[in-house]
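Q: What residues go here?
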């Protein structure tokens, strides 16, 4: 079993389905409301565990009912919560997700995610050193992200940065990542290139490749993904599915990439697997409820007659 350590955010998601987004000052009635656990860090930790990895989560919840519920459910998923802290007097992170025909618009109140510190990473050095891959995102302070990637780098562990939500990211942080996995919006924020086509994605990926150690994946949603490394480019075509909710697709993709690389897959093999995991994820509602197991990914591929490599399956 491979070991994945995730440093990142933990939220409770409030999902509201709408026919359209409201205008300023307008009140709309939603057709469906759902609570689900989320946060990019927690999503990636759960995704890795369901894909067969031993998963450690470094982060914080608040001392409230949401925090207690999240801790209980993460433990039920088999996540190692040794380094899951509780921030006194602080609320658990909350995300309000507005779904319009499967596409999401998200507002996040970071809460306890704002007080995940480099010291928390330092306390988890043993777990990081024992890992096969360390996954980070940008919903906790940048200093903490940098500390986590640096700890992974120092331990010789594969480091993967999912630069979400979209924002500028210091070059010092990018330099600590072996791989980076932006979507088109995040790639645009990082490079200044409007990513609207494969050619745009290629230009952005090559620019980012100058800053990271090994490879770049630009996720293009239903279109697929472009993977670029020093020696080659790999265009991974999208898989046609009925989209229900895209909320955790990027998190599932990143976790799947980490699990696949930890199993020794080549970069393009790992991206093909991650692409399939992401495609299956968007066919279900909710962040963590949508994350598939390895067996479900295998059945999904077989049903669509798609040949993909599966980590740990010979």
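A:
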């Amino acid at each position: 079993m491979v070991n994945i350590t995730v440093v990142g955010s933990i939220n409770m998601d409030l999902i509201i389905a709408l026919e359209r987004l409201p205008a300023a000052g307008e009140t709309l009635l939603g057709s469906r409301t759902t609570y689900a656990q989320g946060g990019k860090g927690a999503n990636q930790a759960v995704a890795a565990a369901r894909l067969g990895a031993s998963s450690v989560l470094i982060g914080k919840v608040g001392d409230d009912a949401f925090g207690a519920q999240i801790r209980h459910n993460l433990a039920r998923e088999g996540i190692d919560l040794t380094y899951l802290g509780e921030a006194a007097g602080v609320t658990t992170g909350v995300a309000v997700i507005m779904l319009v025909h499967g596409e999401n618009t998200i507002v996040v109140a970071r809460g306890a995610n704002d007080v995940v510190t480099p010291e928390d990473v330092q306390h988890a050095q043993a777990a990081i050193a024992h890992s096969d891959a360390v996954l980070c995102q940008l919903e906790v302070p940048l200093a903490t992200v940098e500390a986590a990637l640096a700890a992974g780098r120092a331990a010789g562990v594969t480091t993967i940065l999912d630069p979400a939500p979209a924002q500028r990211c210091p070059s010092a942080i990018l330099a600590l990542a072996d791989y980076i996995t932006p979507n088109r919006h995040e790639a645009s924020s990082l490079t200044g290139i409007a990513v609207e086509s494969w050619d745009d994605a290629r230009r952005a990926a090559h620019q980012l490749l100058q800053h990271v150690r090994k490879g770049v994946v630009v996720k293009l949603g239903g279109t697929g993904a472009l993977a670029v490394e020093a020696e080659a480019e790999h265009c991974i075509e999208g898989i046609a599915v009925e989209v229900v909710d895209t909320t955790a697709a990027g998190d599932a993709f990143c976790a799947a990439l980490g699990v696949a690389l930890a199993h020794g897959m080549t970069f393009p093999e790992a991206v093909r697997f991650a692409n399939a995991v992401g495609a299956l994820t968007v066919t279900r509602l909710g962040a963590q409820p949508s994350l598939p197991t390895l067996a479900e990914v295998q059945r999904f591929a077989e049903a669509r007659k798609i040949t993909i490599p599966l980590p740990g399956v010979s």
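A: Context that may help when evaluating the design: The first helix runs from residue 40 to 50. Residues 3-9+40-92+113-303 form a domain with the UDP-N-acetylmuramoyl-L-alanine:D-glutamate ligase fold (CATH 3.40.1190.20).
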